[in-house]
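INTERNAL AUDIT FORM
Audit reference: QA-55
Scope: verify that the stored structure record matches its stored sequence.
Auditor: D.O.
Record contents follow.
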Amino acid sequence: MANATQAQPLMPHATATWLVDNTSLTFQQIADFCQIHVLEVQAIADETAATRLTPRDPVRAGELTLEEIEKGQKDPSYRMRIIAGPATQRRTSGPRYTPIAKRQDKPDGIAWIIRNHPEITDSQISRLIGTTKATISAIRNREHWNMANISPKDPVTLGLCSQRELDALVAAAAKKAGIVAETDERLGSDRALMVEQLKAEREAAAREPATRPELDASNLFKPQARA
């Protein structure tokens, strides 16, 4: 059973995905560490989970040590302990604080936002990710010193922001930019025209007398004369 007093990984399901793919820990050990149900771990392993998440390395994130993983792999009854991070402080103003372990992921998250949400301004990205406008501009213009190694990745999956924060920012940016979802009216017009045409054809067929003897039931089964 999971320790209720232990902190939970920032992205428990993505962390569980990484542990399933990269360790020989039992499903119960992974479930206890990530504080999720063991059946969820089973679904991740069987690839039957509703959503396939990008694996999140808890060692790289500074939440777990290789020593803890090795202990768990040697002893199935061992319950791994998460590395306690600094106490969360309420943000007031200024750029977002990002743990050192995650700072190298910032360019990937910035590139993802630029590619998928061009309506979001550099100032908004700066506040969301906690970076400088110069860095954003360099990535946008493909002038970043490490551009060859930058791969766009969802900042939520990377743990740089929450899904709620990203969704709120996308909605605000779209509203400010006057972006409205496009709707194609042609389908509705074509459908209405098709209905009218079919209706006219049925009415015309109903007014015409039956003039096709081959459809007469008495002729369908009439024996044919043999030569």
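Auditor finding: record pair retrieved intact. Confidence is low (pLDDT under 50) at residues 86-94, 181-189.
Action required: none
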